[in-house]
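Action item from last week, closing it out:
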Amino acid sequence: MVDFKELGLKPELLRAIEERGYTTPTPIQEQAIPYVLMSRDVLGCAQTGTGKTAAFTLPMLEILSNGTAKARMPRSLILEPTRELAAQVDESFKKYGQYLNFTSALLTGGKGMDDQIKKLDRGVDVLIATPGRMLDLFERGEILLHDIKIFVIDEADRMLDMGFIPDIEKIAGLLPRLRQTLFFSATMPPEIRKLASQFLMNPKEVSVAPPATTAENVKQFVLRVPHSRKREALRAILQREQLKNAFIFCNRKRDIGALVESLTRHGFSVVALHGDLPQSKRDEALEKFRAGVVPFMVCSDVAARGLDIKGVDAVFNFDVPFGADDYVHRIGRTGRAGAEGKSFTFVSGDDDRLLQNIVSLIKKEIEEIKLEGFAADMPAAPEQQDRRGGRHGRSGGGHGGKGRDRDRGPRQDHRKQPHAPKEAREPRPAPIQHEPIREPRETQQPMPQQPQGAGTVGFGNDLPNFLGRQKPRPPESRKEDTF
């Protein structure tokens, strides 16, 4: 087995690595580091939690330890999709490079530009940035990019998902043609491979795991739970498992606050993390969770990529992710660095299609478990209501399974009255009064006949607005009601 000493790294780097408790490189580090040191372009693919950050951080520090940077002219550039990932990479550079003479700057949104500009004025060896803030400062004339020697695109698949590709293409066009480019991604769909071909020249491809696979040391479970009882099921598992800490992922930002409030009300210590929070709140939440002050974090997919927090016991998919790739990244927050972890995914309503997409991607069946007292609560009717109301309970389908039925009064079963009088067995009239307000405008009821040349109900040309709105629209304008 290879150790770090055989990779050709400086003694100062080896000392910092040893102090962090590492003795042998991970497969992605073992294969990528030598090629980076040879100044080759690298296309790296490895499942999350396998040490991709150190695979480019360590050789970059080795290369950049020789030479100094000039004012506003960084020597290397690393692009990250989120502020949290950028901050984590910056932290890795500082820890691994603590015995080397080098400088770095972190350029992310949510913070003032003045301090960032001051760092650039002093000269930086490593510039770690999100694409938006990077372009803002370049357009202000605060950054000169013609001295970039190493260009890193990290979490490329996340960049694609977040719509950053046009920004990356623009930034790449500002860099010198003669440079070394490192391209890292946890998954390698065709779109990412095509994108890599735009930026890399004769790259060495390093892939240590099949794309979109999950770590074997993460035990994956699926629980079928009615939408209205998901919070109750979550609390039951948190109490049963006696977890030290866990990530709890929701699909929508607005659901995060409601879940945090519910868990707090039941005695759980929880923080929230999503993209709409101010940067100071996001930093505070991460620090509390990382330090173990708060054991549970309810978050959006902003926390699904690249966050390296050791010792996370479990991940909960409170909502099945819309994208199958996001499932791989979410559960990658646990079981890191060889540790064991668990993932629990709640399936309700019409989530089966999303679940099948995940199974098809990871090519692995996920064990289905039952939580006592919950499996019996999954009749067909609530699922049908979920489908009528949408994934997130529109029209009330996701809140107690009532929906529009709560306005109809008690249901009657005429099959129990086979000898009832005929008038008692007449079918009920169509419940038009329970349709959305706009429906009466779409019904094809004939209009009352009026004598030719007559005015409109005696109002002439002064038709009141509230009657004017009831006037049927021409057929070509009705297509907007189909949405």
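Closing note: The chain has 17 helices and 14 strands.
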